[in-house]
Amino acid sequence: GRKFRTIERAVTSIKFMHQYADLNNPAEHKHVALALKDAARTLGMQQTQQYPIRLSFAQDETQAILFADLLEAAGRSRRGLRDQLMISFGIDLGVRGSELAAIEHEHIRVGRKGGQVFIKSPKGDSRKQGVWKPFSELTAYIYQEWINQTDIKSGPLLLQTNKAGTIVSRGLACRSITNILKRLTKDAGYP
């Protein structure tokens, strides 16, 4: 069987070809619209999850060097460990800052070879079902270290810290994540 997005693209192509030829558009018929809704409901609209970016590091040395430089710039302090977790999750999951900020401790499953995190409302999830995304063994290791240092039991995973590195119980805001990434990029020696 075909996936919903394939069917949707075919219908869109038919629509544009008929418009281009100045013909009546069969894609605008109410039966086609109902069939598309039915296909979306039965087949689902969520696309297959791609593997984490880290898997391509073997082929792209530049990505691996950038990742290593950012982790090194973060450091090994409590705040640095949080920043390493944020970077590693961001690369593995390929999510936006708002999705990183929304990750909660309860949304994470760790296994022997990495883990999974539940993203409540990923971009493109019009049905608001959320999606489980895989993450690497390295991210799982950094996550375990972060949990051991912070003793988080529930709530936001990426917590704010003050300049002394003391944990503040509130989670990071999306804007804070952007500012941290800018700081780490600069600290790593990138423009």
Describe the protein's architecture and organization.
The chain contains 7 helices and 5 strands. By secondary structure, it is an alpha+beta fold. It is 49% helix and 12% strand. The chain is elongated. The strands form 2 sheets. Strands 1-2-3 form a 3-stranded antiparallel sheet, covered by helices on one side. A two-stranded antiparallel ribbon has the order 4-5.
Key phrases:
191 residues, alpha+beta, 5 strands, 49% helix, 12% strand
Summarize the structure.
The chain is an alpha+beta fold and 191 residues long.
Q: What's the gyration radius in Å?
A: 21 Å
* Helix content estimate: 40-55%
Number of strands: 5
Main beta sheet strand tally, sense and closure: 3 strands, antiparallel
Number of helices: 7
Sequence stretches where pLDDT stays below 50 over 5 or more residues: 50-55
- Given the helix and strand composition, which structural class is it? alpha+beta
Order of helices and strands: HHHHHEEEHEEH
Write the layout of secondary structure elements.
Elements: H1 4-20, H2 30-43, H3 61-74, H4 78-93, H5 97-101, E1 108-111, E2 114-119, E3 131-135, H6 137-150, E4 159-161, E5 167-171, H7 174-187
Antiparallel strand pairs: 1-2, 2-3, 4-5
Helix pairs in contact: 3-4, 4-6
